[in-house]
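Review form for a predicted model. The reviewer records the input and the model, then writes brief findings.
Reviewer: anonymous (R2)
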Amino acid sequence: MKWAISTLQIPTIVLFISLLVGQSPFLIDSSLTSTIPQSISNSIQIGDINNDGYNDIIYSGYDSTRFGLFVDVLTGNSEGTLSINYQTNFPTYPDTIAEYLGGLGNISLVDVNLDGYIDMYVNGSAKSKLLMNVSGNSFNESPMIDNMSITYSHGKWSDVNMDGKPDLFLMGVNEYSDNILNELFINLGTDLDEDPSTIFPSLFTGSNSWGDYDNDGDPDLIILGQTADPNSSVSRLYQNDPIGRLTEVTTASAIKGLKAGASHFVDLDSDGDLDLIITGWNKIEGKLITLLLENEPLGTFSPFEYMLDFAVAYGTIDAIDYNLDGFQDFLIAGADSVTNYAGKVHSLSAKIFLNNRDGSFSIAQEIPGARSARFVDVNLDGIPDLVASGTTEIGNDSSTFSHFYINTTSGTSNSPQPPNALNAFAVSTRAIFTWGAGSDDLDPISSLSYNLRVGTSSGGNQLVSSGVPFNSTNVGKRLIREFTEIPHGTYYWAVQTVDGSGNVSAWSQEDTLFIPRLVPSIQSLPGVYYSSAGWADYNKDDVPDLALTGVTFSGTSITNLFENSVGLLSQDLSQNIEAVFGGHLSWVDYTNDGNLDLTMTGFQISNFFGGFMTSFYKWDDGIYVPDYASEISTDLNYDGIGDNWVNGGVNGHHWGDYDNDGDLDYVQGGFDNYYRRHLDIFYNDNGIMRLDTNQIHLIPINPAIVHWVDLDRDGNLDLITIGADETQTVMLRAYLNNSNHILTPGITWQSEIFGVTAGAIAFADYNGDGYEDFAISGLNNEGDLVTYIAENSINTFIVSHILQGTYYGKPAWGDYDSDGDLDLLITGQSSIEGDLGSNPVTLIYSQENNEFIVDQTLSIDSVGISFSQWGDYDDDGDLDLFLSGFKENQDVVAQVYDNLESLQNPNKAPNSPYLLDDSDIKGDRVTLTWEVPIDPENSNGSSTPAEGLRYQIQIGSEDENNDHAISTGHYGIDNIGTFLMTQKTIKNLSEGNYSWRVRAIDYGLRASEWSNTDYFYIDVTAPAIDTIRSNYVTNDQIILVIKFKEDFYLDLNKEPTVIVTHPFDSDLGNPGTEDDSLLVTKQSFNGDEWTGVLLLPDYFSGKAIEVHVYGAQDGRENKMVRSSVFKTPESIISQYGGTAISEDGQVNVLLPQNAVTGDISVSIKGQGVPPDTSSFLVNGGITYLISDLYDIKPFGRSLNKPGILRMGFPDSTCLITEQLNQYFNIDCLNKMSCDDLEGEWIAISDFEQAPFVGLIDTTIKELLPVLKLGGSQVSISRNSFMQVQIDTFGTYGVFVTLDNTLLVDSLDLEKVVCQPRIFSPGGTGDLFEFTETNIMYSLEYEEDVTARIFNLSGRLKRVLKPEHTQQIGNQMLNWDGKDENGKIVPSGLYIITLEKEDIVLRTTVGVLNR
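Model under review:
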């Protein structure tokens, strides 16, 4: 600055000249000195401890003769003398540096608990003690700060967060944890908590100071010290911006690093901002230095042109105008001679510097041996005196001193005059107090400072204490003091002037400030009317954002999103959402992806459209994009307008899970763009809304109030509508939801009392009885404006309260005062007279003992054509308010009001629900239940009653890896998706694993943490057979082991029934002699496997069986349908022969006696050949596979006697012709399916070539490695089979072909045999008791054959001649044991001849009739 000499009184100038010629300004007063204990103090503080108006002196330090850390309090009095008022000591040990010079540490004064009395914090020498002042007479140790063992330390107080309560910065070494401590402790009123928001360097052996060097009204911080490196010296400056956030200033290059340093903010140049003095040991220069730093320009420090050549370590700095010239002088005291990086002290000294008012400073006086010194006015002359403590010989107890020095300056200094023109107001969570300047007889206004006192009672100190140490100030030089987060209520306040010599004025006349519970916030939003808005955390940063629609003052319409960043709403410019107004807006995750989507109904005016609009916008990676996929946008007449675009007004649509499938469904009402009334319900089909055409009882209305609500607590959402039908009848209608989710009229609920237009509704359980009530406002049928509170009185609503009538507004429920009950906000026009928007009103009714009383203490904009919604947008534990609409002066507003209730009575979130139970599962539905959690009491002792808690549920699919797949866990700030009951039934769930959790919401819309996640499994699949093992214990005894396939668990009380029959002629029924069913006797059943034993009758000769299982049931009551499996014995006994059969029954092999050597295990299993790989192009044409390929194992096993192979094939199948492929799709079971595949449905009998059995032979090096075995077509139980003789096991299939070049088999062409050799024409016809024999032969080429059957007498019994020429390969003819007349021949031996073109073959066969 440009230094200017102030106009001073002549005596002061004379004094100044006298000082220049060598007279000491301070002389020892031996009388006062004699009253002071002579211990060496590391810290001296001045303050009015007992509030008697006189300065008291507090000494503190380490003294081994007093066994540790001591505190001495000397009180002043009206006589100008001192007396010891209080002394204490704390036994401890010293640090290693300053054992003989008072120790390292300090004492700091402040009114910690805001009771009007100055308290003390003392630290160092392994102690940390907060001493609370008890009415000025004594001190008690406080537990507000944790007990710590602090050495090499320093602590100072300041109100860093501007809440009125002093906070503490403490640095040092915590010997308890053996770490360096640099912490800011925030004063919460009951304790001091560490603030983790700023990371400080680990410094000790230094000091810290607070000062508002940037003149922004909040204190900034400087800290000096060393790191763990003893050769280090560090200084850090922190700017407090914004309030309460300390940020390191990295550009303060003029501030050099100092170890063992001291600092002091003071306005040396009297320009109204704080300069800085620092002194200590600097590593770079390797010595002690002192820096005088000028704050010019504001906020930037640079060295004064004049620098001091005196510096100290472990010192103190104090500043005051001791010579009454209007400029601040200062003293520096401490260790002026050190070595070993300031680790060893050799001498102590103090020097007083006179401010020459030109940027230079003169040494006015030196005090040898002074460790600490402080200015103080004890003799009551208004001129600062001096106290100092130290030793002239370190380590010599007899050389210690504590002296009192009287200021010899002549002249007078009167007390300043207090300020006037006090003014105070509140903005958002800030309270601002301003005043006019005080005055002084010596100091100019720019040099004056101020103290502020604010309390909740007259003369009180509850917000800011009047207890301020001498020569200090709790405001500084500014004429304004701002507080953050000040509670609502009435405040009493006054201001005091402090001059440059430390003198204070009387307190100003006390003024008052009333702060209502709701105050205007600093949010800047475009004013709108015909608006709708909604709070919701759409960007998932855990604080609510805002969507806003409406018409602005200029007449343009908007739909804007505002992101909430640390309590500040700013427009999200990345969104492009078409403007809608005059309707309704909802935040809802209808796509179940965990992100909130946006839906709106209302008017829309654009270049391409003007009319009613229903808009769906879904979240797409942070951007909201239009969603036209739902049937709401169906446009059957192609006019570019959705047929279901409507607008019904403020409550024109709503969301709720009416069909209990977990996702949210949609209802809307109102006029469409052809002025047709609507009342439409759309169910949610995986994020696509589809019109529910089953709802035939709904009456279309306009205007439309629609709301999903569970009226009767049956767990199903019912529907409330209010509006005019086509007859213009305006009434409330209720539609009750039945178990099939068909809505039918609830006659007893209907009422014309609640029929309103230009109205709105808000549902809530205001009386805590567990049933949904509502508040409604609007213009009723009689032309009156009404606001009713309607109570749910079981089967009907009754009016319980009548409030101020309004229309064109919206009621809103919320516990804004956090007293455990719901209050009600109403807005709108209070008169039908005047223009639209005139006579607006905004009222908040506080509920007290079931009565609703207007809160007259609030000052909120009265708005019409309005919208309102509660929401805790700043996440501080109380309900803030959004309000928009027309004011009386026709101004248009959109205002957020901050609620200050949480500053003293924050609404505590409910505990999480617990004891989650998902055991009630029936088929595809589950009923989820939980226990009601406790809503903890708020500070005022209130909480939401258990019946008033609402719940949100989240259900995810583990199989889909989507935690929101069934019911989303992301909701807006309203009642969508919430319910009152502690259970929720979900239906139509697919089989799979699900996760779920639930949370509670109280009257203050505060949500609990989500409960622990629980899991359940939906099983809608009945048990099925996994495997069946059949073990033949003896020739006639089988043990069946059936393993079930079940994803849940089988009900052991529901045992399966197991029956065995013949494979091809089963006659299922009750077990017994009247049919062929054999009941298997159970041996064991463990829920996984069932074991039973079966005794086969003698006539079960083949031993292959068909097993039928039914009746098994799982734990979810899914009952198994009858399942049949063909089983082959796991061992075929050589001497008996036997049958092997595939599990699908399509293939079987008959082995005659002794066909194999030794017992053998035979298995037949299909390969599952894909249909489109089953055609083969060979030289002779295309060959098609018309069955699966079956592996008959063991592969390569040759038979001693030929066996009979039967393979099933379809009578008709689907021929698929593609560009490069043609094949039979045997999986296609009917012509309709074939048509869908664009195939040709062909009967195999009509195909050009007959089917044949082929053996896969990999030794054939052609495209189709198949041996053609031929075969005969037979019908068994109306199913077609190819039957052929085989002599080896391998892979077989049924083919048809156009190729006649395939190889033939190697069987003897000149031989005919019958299998079986003995058969029973009168038998049962199953596989074990053959009713026919197979006449087996082979052909080298196509030819006609004839078989003739003779008895032993030579009489011809039967002639068999195939209708078609026989194919090359193995062939068979079947004889059923009957003669030409169809009668069964007698038992006996018969001769069979086979006549070929060039030969006649013969064999015999036996007939055995039972």
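Findings: The radius of gyration is 50 Å.
Further findings: DSSP finds three helices and 100 strands in the chain.
Recommendation: see findings above.
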